[in-house]
Structures are given as C-alpha cells and as structure tokens.
Amino acid sequence: MIGEINPTLRRRKLASELRRLREEAGLNGVQVSQALRWSTSKLSRLETGQVAPAAKDVARLLKHYDALGEEGDLLLELAGNHVSKGWWESYSDVLHEIALEYVGLEDGASVISAWHNNVLPGLLQTRAYATELARLYRAVEVATPSQIERRIRVRMRRQQLLTNGRVTYTAVVEEAALRRRFGEADEAMMREQLRHLLRLSLLPNITIHVMLLEQPHPIDLSSFVHLRFPSMPLLGPISSDVVYTEDYPGLELIESEERVYRYSLLFDVLRQAALGEEASRDCIASLAGL
C-alpha cells in the first residue's frame, strides 16, 4: 500500500515515472502517441504533470512499456488512489498558479527548511500578523476585503501541517524580522506573535534559529523555502526536492537539481551561523518581554 498522497504530488510523481518508463523503453513521444492513437499533446501533458492521468491511461502505458510487475501495480494504485482536487484548489481565484502549486507541494512535504530575512515565515504567523501583511498589498494591487480574507484563510489552513506529525520544520529567521512591524501592527500584536513563535518552538518537530543583527552575516540572500518529500516503496521519493522563492511580484519554483543543492548548502551555512535552539528561544522571549 502506498498510503494517501495529495493530488499535486500524485500528478507530479506519475508524470516523472511515466516519462522515465518511456525513456527506459527507448521510445520517443511521437512513437508512443502513434502506437496508442493519442495526440502527442496528450502524452506531453501527462509526462509534464499538467494533468493527472486516468488509471486506464496509466494501464495502457504500462502495458506498452511492458512494466506490469510490482512497480506497475504501485503506479496503478497511485493513479487510482486520489481525490480530484486538493483543498488549496478552491482558492485559485486569489492565489497565483505558482503559489497554488507550492501549497500542494508544501502540504505533502516531509522536511521543510526556511530562511526568512524580512518577514516571519507564513507557517509561523498569527492571524493578526498575517492580516496586516495581506492588507499591505492593497497599495500595489486591487484586492477586495473578501479576497484579503480568503488569502488569510489559506495561510491559516496551511499551518495545520505543522501539527499533523508528518513534517519536520526548521526555520532560520533574521532578528530584523522579529522586530519589524507591518501595517498597523502595534506592540501588543507583536508580543503575541513572538509568544506564538515560542509556543511553536517547543513542539518536537519545529526548530527556530535566530540570526542576530549584531553578528557577522554569512551571506546576502533573500528568503527561500526548501522542501523534501517522503519515499514510496520501489519508486523512491514522491518528488525531487524543490525550492520556492517569493520576491513580489515574482514567484519561482526551482527544481533544477544543481540549484536546489546549492540552496541546501546555503541553508546549512545560515543555520550554523545562527543561534542554537535555546539561545534563539531566549532571544525571542526577551523581545516578547518575557
């Protein structure tokens, strides 16, 4: 049994495995499409993860590639074990396409490593803090109060993954982000936000490191999030590692193995330069007035 896999990861895993099987069979897309009497665009959409393949299409491809053993059985199970959409898809009216894809990936990650130098990580924000951030975008784009509220709901819903027992979360946060106030955030709101960070840092799967302003900074780097994923029997990781960067108005999902690896090295440098867990808690507590 492969267990439950969300729609985003299911689609991406099937795409990569079907592409791998075709390449191992020594076939190109035109040859397969002609043999199955499909359009080349249909096969391309399946292999690039633009659409989730139906179980019957996966079965035809497996037969064509002569991949009907245990591995094929797992792929058929993966194709049939799904819900049509993830919860995040219902927010496509207020989220960019790349952001939607990221939320789906984040939802299925097993390890999340985040570096934030200007703002606190979304997964660690209180509703009040997230609300002030969301309201600021009114200065650069038209967003109705209902649209702002829906974006906040997405952020709050995302945070549920921190308590589901499936993910290990590590954040390195610049001290400036702990001190900076956005919008109408007052001292009381920031104190509650910092106390929220302290409570979260006590959870066994969450680690928060603080990078002090007074210490030498190891590198000038904008915020990013690195996602790693669990593995499946025989088929390996559900997805290769992904890095997400967000520098308004540009969003990027980085999947190049070399670039992602570089980000993993950079995160290690940042984590090693930051305060340890206990010292970071002391720093946050001091800023929170505790």
Could you explain the architecture of this structure?
The chain has two domains: 74 residues, 434 Repressor (Amino-terminal Domain), CATH 1.10.260.40; 196 residues, Endonuclease, Chain A (2-Layer Sandwich). 48% of the residues lie in helices and 13% in strands. It has 290 residues and is α/β, with parallel strands linked by helices. The strands form two sheets. A six-stranded mixed beta sheet has the order 3-2-1-4-7-8, with helices on both faces. Strands 5-6 form a two-stranded antiparallel sheet. A hairpin with a 3-residue loop joins strand 5 and strand 6. The longest helix has 18 residues.
Summarize the structure.
The chain is α/β, with parallel strands linked by helices. 48% of the residues lie in helices and 13% in strands. GO terms for molecular function: DNA binding.
